[in-house]
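Long-time lurker, first post. I've been practising inverse folding by hand and with some scripts of my own, and I keep getting stuck on stretches where the structure tokens seem ambiguous. Below is the full token string for one chain I'm working on. Before anyone asks, I'm not after the true native sequence, just a reasonable design that respects the backbone. If someone could post their per-position residues I'd love to compare against what I wrote down in my notebook.
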């Protein structure tokens, strides 16, 4: 089954850290760029999700959205078919549902993992 499954979300204090994972199955993970997006609470499902970070297929080209640059780290392990998003110095405005997305081919998203920021 072709799918992406995120995990690692939860409650984090402001200034804390969290590591999200995205496990891919059913396709050749190492052939695709991967991206992380987020959707903040209160936004309608139809509103565009915010792009957070992207990584190319072999992990040597990485880009970040302005709001997370310097705090988040995207990475991947092609031997484990997994993409990661490390979140550091988390801010209240980082609270959102985080989604991973396969970039290229048929559009493929995970189901999302919730990140809550609260002291």
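-- Answer (accepted) --
I ran through it position by position. Result:
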């Amino acid at each position: 089954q072709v799918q992406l499954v995120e995990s690692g979300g939860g409650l984090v204090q402001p200034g804390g850290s969290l590591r999200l994972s995205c496990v891919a199955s059913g396709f050749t993970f190492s052939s695709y760029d991967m991206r992380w997006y987020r959707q903040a609470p209160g936004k309608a499902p139809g509103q565009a999700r915010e792009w957070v970070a992207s990584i190319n297929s072999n992990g040597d080209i990485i880009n970040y959205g302005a709001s997370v640059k310097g705090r988040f780290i995207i990475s991947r392990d092609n031997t484990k078919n997994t993409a990661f998003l490390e979140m550091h110095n988390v801010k209240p405005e980082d609270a959102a549902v985080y989604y991973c997305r396969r970039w290229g081919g048929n559009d493929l998203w995970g189901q999302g993992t919730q990140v809550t920021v609260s002291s």
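A couple of notes from the structure itself: The radius of gyration is 13 Å. DSSP finds no helices and eleven strands in the chain. Happy to go over any region you disagree with.
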